[in-house]
Amino acid sequence: MEDWAEIESQASSARMSDLRTALIFEHRQRLIDHIPDLRRYARSLTFNPDDADELLQDCLERALSRLHLLREDSNMRSWAFTVMHNIYCNWIKSMKGRPAHVRLDETLFAAGVEAHQDASAELTIAVGMLRQLSDRQREIITLIAIKGISYREAAQRLDVPIGTVMSRLSRARERLRALVVGAAARVV
Fold first, then answer.
1. Does residue 3 lie in a domain region?
2. What is the total count of domains within the chain?
3. Cut 0.70: pTM above it
4. CA–CA–CA angle 107, 111, 114 (5° rounding)
5. Residue 151 sits in the same domain as residue 176
6. Distance between CA 150 and CA 115 in Å, rounded?
């Protein structure tokens, strides 16, 4: 009898392990489906393709190493964006106190905009204005105005009340309006 119970226990354990493996494989496939969105989000946070790729790599590495923690009904997209957001926040904290990093190729790109590249010039101006916002304001503008997510989802991702999201968005929009008005006054 004891041998039969032990065999049954091992078989049950093997089935649970197989189910868990299948679930992790399914989570991995769902994570892969969200890579383009994660890449866009990383670029909107960092404004630098190299830093964005590094942020995406760190996010995927952390997410893949923790897939076993997810439940079957977890929202993979929201979870992956939260992982990236947290990694980005840690990056920002670690960068405080360090001197600003200015890349030579960015300086040359900004100076090399020609007259027939109006769209590129406008994009450069818009990115420059976004860079002038605080990290929190830029993040909320990116999530809501660029990514198009709801206030509720933004509140969940940032782990703040929905009123805080609306307040930050309002202040960010006002700051952008002031920057646009200031830029237009300098042109005229």
1. no
2. 2
3. no
4. 145
5. yes
6. 38
